[in-house]
């Protein structure tokens, strides 16, 4: 069965846009979020993750999984989403071109 691709968009909650206002707990959640994404990459489920570098950053995560339910579960279990410091929205997606 061909794998499906999904993109989830992440937006930091407005109260955390100023990095200096983040607590150690919030910084720890962001670190855990990154570690979970690294694990997904090692499992072959993460194609790409990154963020914009402007003052109101947006992150994207592109997954390659078996089902939409799996994508929803991975997004909802992202520590940043689960802990409520980032809001996420899932989109069906298909990478059309890759850099060689």
From TrEMBL:
This is YCII-related domain-containing protein. Transmembrane segments: none annotated. It holds the Pfam family YCII. Residues 23-88 form the YCII-related domain. SUPFAM superfamilies: Dimeric alpha+beta barrel (SSF54909). Belongs to the YciI family. InterPro entries: Dimeric_a/b-barrel, YCII. Coiled coil: none annotated. It comes from Psychrobacillus soli.
């Amino acid at each position: 069965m061909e794998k499906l691709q999904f993109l989830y968009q992440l937006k930091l909650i407005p109260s955390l846009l100023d990095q200096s206002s983040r607590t150690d707990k919030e910084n720890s959640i962001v670190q855990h979020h990154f570690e979970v994404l690294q694990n997904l990459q090692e499992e072959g489920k993460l194609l790409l993750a990154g963020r914009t570098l402007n003052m109101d950053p947006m992150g994207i995560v592109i997954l390659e999984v078996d089902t939409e339910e799996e994508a929803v579960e991975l997004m909802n279990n992202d520590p940043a989403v689960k802990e409520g410091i980032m809001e996420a929205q899932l989109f069906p997606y298909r990478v059309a071109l890759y850099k060689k």
